[in-house]
Design brief:
Mean pLDDT: 95
Number of domains: 1
Low-confidence stretches: none
Helix content: 40-55%
Shape: globular
Radius of gyration: 12 Å
Strand order of the largest sheet: 1-2-3-4-5
Distance between the termini: 26 Å
Order of helices and strands: EEHEHEHEH
CATH architecture: 2-Layer Sandwich
CATH superfamily: STAS domain
Strand content: 25-35%
Number of strands: 5
Structural class: alpha/beta
CATH topology: Transcription Regulator spoIIAA
């Protein structure tokens, strides 16, 4: 898995590629914790290049969402497609995550 963070329209965009699973979830958590430590409470997570998500990845997303809620913040998820979208919908996460077709749409939702 690779994680790239860039600023766009005043908010960080966290691009996650590859697999978000038990082996890589620590890197995702570190990236989120860096954003929290920097005082970021609004950001976009771009899953355009994410090919797989496991239950460990879902738990990490949920943990970050809880932390954001405690900080009065918000995350928007962009480009959630294919198998990743199927897993998110099957597990009911689609009803608790802010899902958008593009990074621009997710930025506007923040």
């Amino acid at each position: 898995m690779e994680i790239r963070v860039r600023e766009s329209a005043g908010a960080p965009v966290v691009a996650v590629s590859g697999k978000l699973d038990a082996l890589s979830v620590g890197d995702y958590e570190k990236a989120m914790n860096r954003l929290f430590a920097d005082g970021k409470a609004r950001f976009v997570v771009d899953f355009a290049d994410l090919t797989y998500i496991s239950s460990a990845g879902l738990r990490a997303i949920l943990a970050a969402a809880k932390e954001l809620k405690a900080r009065g913040g918000q995350a928007a998820f962009a480009n959630v497609r294919g198998n990743v979208l199927n897993v998110i919908e099957m597990t009911g996460f689609a009803s608790i995550l802010s899902l958008h077709e593009s990074v621009d749409a997710a930025l506007k939702a923040l």
